[in-house]
Amino acid sequence: MEYYVPMVMIGILAAWMLSARYQSRVNANGGCPNCHTPVPLTRKPTSARQAVWGGWTCTNCGTEMDSRGNEIEGRTA
Ligand SMILES: [Zn+2]
After folding, report:
1. What residues are paired with 65 via a beta bridge?
2. How far is the CA of 26 from the centre of ligand 1 (A)?
3. What's the pLDDT score for residue 32?
């Protein structure tokens, strides 16, 4: 079990680096697709999908977007 902890830490670090990369890409494209608010680096997942797949919810207008900054409409696909 002693190998478990470092693997989890690497996983968290990799997820954080991916998140940072996505964030800079989304902001380079203008941030929020509706109000162009830059997305924060630290995201608070508002759904299980966001926690797993990434993405942000705009702090200004509440638009939900995926990790590439595309607006997610309120449907389950
Ligand atoms: Zn917005």
Report:
1. 56, 71
2. 12
3. 92
